[in-house]
Amino acid sequence: MQSIESKMVPGLFERFAARFEAERDALIALDGKVGDSDLGLTMSKAFKAARDKVLGEFADADIGTQMKQAGGAISKAAPSTMGTLMATGFLRGGKAMAEAEALDVAGLAAFWRAYADGVAQRGKAQLGDKTVLDVLDPIARAYEAQAAAGAELEVASAVAAKAAADALEATKDLVAQHGKAAAFQEKSRGLQDAGGTVACMLAEELNAFVQAAKG
Amino acid sequence: MQSIESKMVPGLFERFAARFEAERDALIALDGKVGDSDLGLTMSKAFKAARDKVLGEFADADIGTQMKQAGGAISKAAPSTMGTLMATGFLRGGKAMAEAEALDVAGLAAFWRAYADGVAQRGKAQLGDKTVLDVLDPIARAYEAQAAAGAELEVASAVAAKAAADALEATKDLVAQHGKAAAFQEKSRGLQDAGGTVACMLAEELNAFVQAAKG
Amino acid sequence: MKKFLNKPEDFVDEMLEGIYCAHPEVTYTADDLRCYVTANPVPGKVGIVTGGGSGHLPTFLGFVGKNMLDGCGVGGVFQSPSADQLAEVTRYVDQGAGVLYVYGNYTGDIMNFDMASELVELDDIETATVTGNDDVASSVVGEEHKRRGVAGIFFLYKAAGAAAARMLPLAEVARITEKARSRTRTMGVALSACIVPEIGKPGFEIGEDEMEIGMGIHGEPGISRKKLAAADDVVDEMMERIFAETDYAKGDEVAILMNGLGGTPKEELYILYRRVAKLMDEMGVKIRHVWLGEFATSMEMAGFSISVLHLDNELEPLIAAKADTPFFSYFAK
Amino acid sequence: MKKFLNKPEDFVDEMLEGIYCAHPEVTYTADDLRCYVTANPVPGKVGIVTGGGSGHLPTFLGFVGKNMLDGCGVGGVFQSPSADQLAEVTRYVDQGAGVLYVYGNYTGDIMNFDMASELVELDDIETATVTGNDDVASSVVGEEHKRRGVAGIFFLYKAAGAAAARMLPLAEVARITEKARSRTRTMGVALSACIVPEIGKPGFEIGEDEMEIGMGIHGEPGISRKKLAAADDVVDEMMERIFAETDYAKGDEVAILMNGLGGTPKEELYILYRRVAKLMDEMGVKIRHVWLGEFATSMEMAGFSISVLHLDNELEPLIAAKADTPFFSYFAK
Ligand SMILES: Nc1ncnc2c1ncn2[C@@H]1O[C@H](COP(=O)(O)OP(=O)(O)O)[C@@H](O)[C@H]1O
Ligand SMILES: Nc1ncnc2c1ncn2[C@@H]1O[C@H](COP(=O)(O)OP(=O)(O)O)[C@@H](O)[C@H]1O
Ligand SMILES: [Mg+2]
Ligand SMILES: [Mg+2]
Ligand SMILES: [Mg+2]
Ligand SMILES: [Mg+2]
User: Fold this and answer.
1) B85 lines ligand 2 (CB under 6 A)
2) Are the beta carbons of B35 and C79 separated by less than 8 Å?
3) Which residues span the domain enclosing A137?
4) Average pLDDT in the A3-18 region?
5) A182 contacts in D (CB within 8 Å)?
6) Strand, helix or coil at D28?
7) Residue C197: CB partners within 8 Å, gap ≥ 6?
8) Residue B17 confidence (pLDDT) above 90
């Protein structure tokens, strides 16, 4: 498989929705350590709303529109920090896709770059601030490198998922600078970032989706 | 010993105060069953205040004044239902003593009769309503009977204490008609009345005081 | 016991010190912090005096102020003030027109107010008495005189205060307050106990999933203890009791007090009120006034009560009158 | 979880339904219950809009009313309203003079208000922003921009609302509100957690004898967790932090907000306030205004906060101005 086609996108969002439904309590617990425990709620709501949107009126739209609509749905359904950032990411990523009918590795590189940059701009966070950006940026970089190397979609998405997992692990060494976790300062060291965990799950689900589509 | 003299009255109030201090938690628990748990607090405060009054400026006063002053102190220190009733009792009992220098069996009969009648009038309760009156009235009747029979003080006070204990036991069969306990209606049956318990303790301490003074 | 306290025995007096610091419009008389009075008595006006145990803020003292009460005897937690204290308050408050006592129907309070009125009679101060007994759960129909007073006494204060502010004579103020009393009904429900500071442990036990319908504000038991139900169902059960004793005609008007017992957040009170409004609407009864918040609490107890005053043409403008006390401000609309 | 609820997911919307039933002076726009606005916008006046998560009543929406706010975006429990909702509220509230955004310094809210202001720019609505960051415990001196907003935002609302009511232009209202922001400090302490209805369990654990000094209103940790101390000692520790960052001269004036977090009774707040008044008195600082009660809660959380606004001649009359909202009424004295 060389690319994800727009008619496959609803299936991808079904995966996202199912994953965040399944991780609801785990994310509540994770956010509860240095935050306000809402992340499991907001992410399950966010991706349920995104799925409903993409499965519904926009099942046949182009990929760019699907992604933007997913972003719009998330921004209404879950306007917390992560909800708003994920909404911004899908909106900007979708814009970068314009009216593309399919997403190949180069397209995914562009999508994730726009996604990560949108989040950085909206959240005014720097790399190393222990936020979702510290996982999103490595995902974008992985797809960019794979696109430059002309890698297959299956390979690229596996590499990106691995990069996300590593990046998430690396957030443990960082000290939170933003949001509710920042109040914990040094105490946040040793804990993986909650928002980064969400980004990692996105990369994982995307990869699992690609692998399943191949098989 | 034929009578309690005014100079002995401070000792009697030391007994009352010590007893209600010791019974504080038990009375809290008892009142808690069908009331608001305050009885242990109010009675320990009430008799501490009475003792301080009678031990202090009124140590050398006549018995009537001592009793009235005790009542006044109680009414200020613990104006709950039982506090106010006990205050009324001591005030009326003291009045009945006029300027007596000593309390013999006849004097005690008059004291307790005035005490019980004052409580009945202030609380507007009838005999059988499951209140302190159902113990006070038997105490008064016991002293009256003993006085009529010309009994010794030691005998009369022992008989009165026994009458109080029996009357308290008998309150178990009654259904509360007044105060917070009335809300429990039938559920109050089987429980001994909290206010009656206080009256019984007064009779017991008076008796113990008389027996100790004899010995 | 998790409370912000210094010594438990100083709870009431330190609370009063804080109140006097914060609110210069109230003060105390007879050199006794617990003899709480307005700093601005109105000459010639009937004085309104209340009193009762502490632990129910803003009840009782919180309603001393403009267009409401003039004085309050402050008791220990859940205990009556003394007859002496009530007499002192009465003497301060009397402005030559006599004094109305308005308080809850509890034995301890009754005896002390009665004693106080005997004491001030010696000073030629005329008094009259109305005892609030709005708690439907505390005795059956026909035995209303045994019912205890709870949050609904707010309406008695409001009516009495506004009537007195019109400079009506004592008998009139008493008659109007008595009318407000006879037309007020309250039902409450509790989810948790509270702790009297000097006792240090809860007054009763209640299961993690239980509610007590009709519980009194000192923890007196109610009508039934059952599993906590959905908010709408709880309201339905409570309102059924209130509706059962009142004849409402279509177009009748009521005032409603949704009262939190202390531990229940306002968010929940509004969810509950939503249902009350729906039931009233279905009956064709108009809610002319509603107040929602904490009016008669039991310190940190979780729970709430619904009080309904069946308005008439005489009571409505009194309830609608503006009022301003340290704990309750209302702009007439 | 012991709450009066129907379905947990309906908590916010049913609460809003109750509020709209009870208070005809507020309504909603864009057919969205969560776009909460005054029913009586004042032509030509700068609009003041706030917004934030639910679960803090009366914050945030409770201060929409006369002489205070004009609109509020209402989020889920502890969650920001959406940018779309804030934009709708802004469009309704704008009366040609522009709109001031006043809200707490939280990432989610900032992002959504920023997005909203971009959206309404397309409608030629001018906005300005002041974000409350009064919580001393949430970051050190020098890093004030990282501090979160808590109960002290009440003073920003009061100043902004009174300034706008004087028909001052947007830049002036913003300048004054910004000044109130820079002169407001808050310290809080919590004794217990609260439960978000849809989560169903407490956000954190705290021991039976512990307190958390500096805890945030969503349960964010504070400066230290220690054994619950005597009320006076707790106040001393909190006030020390506030005094440490403010230069008070003898004769300076302050306004104080003693705020209960939800589960702490007013009795305790007064005991605590008594100590605050004593400390201020020792410093020679005059407490010109004090409000005491529940202003910014965390549902049933036990605890309280002290907010201090260092007054000046410009702010004082604005803080003293009368105000009337469904949740807060104040007669100017
Ligand atoms: N300014 C920011 N920029 C980017 N990401 C941020 C920022 N602030 C917080 N985050 C991310 O958001 C996560 C928390 O999300 P969420 O629970 O939605 O926050 P909140 O409950 O405070 O609104 C953090 O783990 C972090 O990854
Ligand atoms: N009207 C009454 N007349 C006489 N005794 C009464 C009356 N009402 C209550 N009591 C007595 O008071 C006792 C309760 O006293 P107390 O705890 O002081 O009441 P409360 O806490 O309700 O003020 C009851 O056990 C009963 O003996
Ligand atoms: Mg969170
Ligand atoms: Mg009792
Ligand atoms: Mg409360
Ligand atoms: Mg949040």
Assistant:
1) yes
2) no
3) 4-214
4) 97
5) 139, 146
6) strand
7) C1, C3, C5, C8, C9, C11, C77
8) yes
pLDDT at B28 (0 to 100): 94
* Total domains, chain A: 1
Q: Do both C169 and C40 map to the same domain? A: yes
Q: Look-up: residue for tokens 């409370």? A: C3
Band (pLDDT 50/70/90 cuts) for residue B215 is low
Q: Which atom of ligand 1 is nearest to the CA of A198?
A: 27
- Please state, in angstroms and rounded to a whole number, the distance separating the CA atoms of residues C42 and C93: 9
Q: Report the distance separating Cα B68 and Cα B50, nearest Å.
A: 10
pTM of the complete model: 0.92
Q: Name the stretches of chain D with pLDDT < 70.
A: none
Asked if D49 and D88 count as a contact pair (C-beta separation under 8 A), the reply is: no
Q: Which residue stretches of chain C have pLDDT < 50?
A: none
Whether residue C116 is found in the same domain as residue C191: no
C231 touches D: beta carbon within 8 Å: yes
Whether D215 is in a domain gets the answer yes
3-state secondary structure of D47: strand
Assess if residue D320 is contained within a domain. Answer: no
Compute the distance between CA of residue C90 and CA of residue D191 in angstroms, rounded to an integer.
40
CB contact under 8 A, D221 and A75: no
What total of structural domains would you count in chain D? Answer: 2
D268 alpha carbon, closest ligand: 5
- Residue A102: how many CB atoms within 10 A of its CB? 16
Q: What is the mean pLDDT of chain D?
A: 96
Residue C3 lies in a domain: no
Rg of chain D in Å (alpha carbons): 19
pLDDT score of C221: 79
Whether residue C149 is found in the same domain as residue C45: yes
Cβ D296 vs Cβ D217: under 8 Å: yes
Question: Is residue D94 domain-resident?
Answer: yes
What pLDDT digit, counting tens, does each position of C258-292 carry? 999 999 999 999 999 999 999 999 999 999 999 99
The CATH number linked to C282 is 3.30.1180.20
Q: Which of D23, D56, D289, D310 is catalytic?
A: D56
The range of the structural domain enclosing residue C62 comes to 8-182
Q: Is the pLDDT of residue A183 over 80?
A: no
Residues 247-306 of D with CB under 8 A from C: 262-274, 277, 290, 292, 294, 297, 299-300, 302, 304
Domain containing residue A26: CATH number: 1.25.40.340
Residues 6+ apart with CB under 8 A from C134: C147, C149, C150, C151, C152, C153, C181, C184, C185, C186, C307
ipTM: 0.90
C232 vs B: CB within 8 A: no
Interface subset of A 183-212, CB within 8 angstroms of D: 183-184, 187
Residue of D nearest to C298 (CA): D265
Residues D133-166: tens digit of each pLDDT: 999 998 888 889 989 999 999 999 999 999 999 9
Q: Within this chain, do residues D49 and D101 fall inside the same structural domain, yes or no?
A: yes
| Domain CATH for D73 | 3.40.50.10440
Indicate whether C73 and C191 sit together in one domain: no
What ligand has the least distance to the C-alpha of A177?
1
Tokens of D102: 């006043």
Do D256 and D128 lie in a common domain? no
What is the per-residue pLDDT for B153?
97
Provide the sign of the torsion angle of the four alpha carbons D16, D21, D23, D27, taken in this order. positive
D165 shares its domain with D206: no
Q: Are residues C165 and C200 in the same domain?
A: no
Q: Report the 10 Å Cβ neighbour count for A121.
A: 11
pLDDT (tens digit per residue) in B197-212? 999 999 999 999 999 9
Nearest CA to ligand 1 atom 1: A123
- In tens, the pLDDT along A30-72 reads 998 888 888 999 999 999 999 999 999 999 999 999 999 999 9
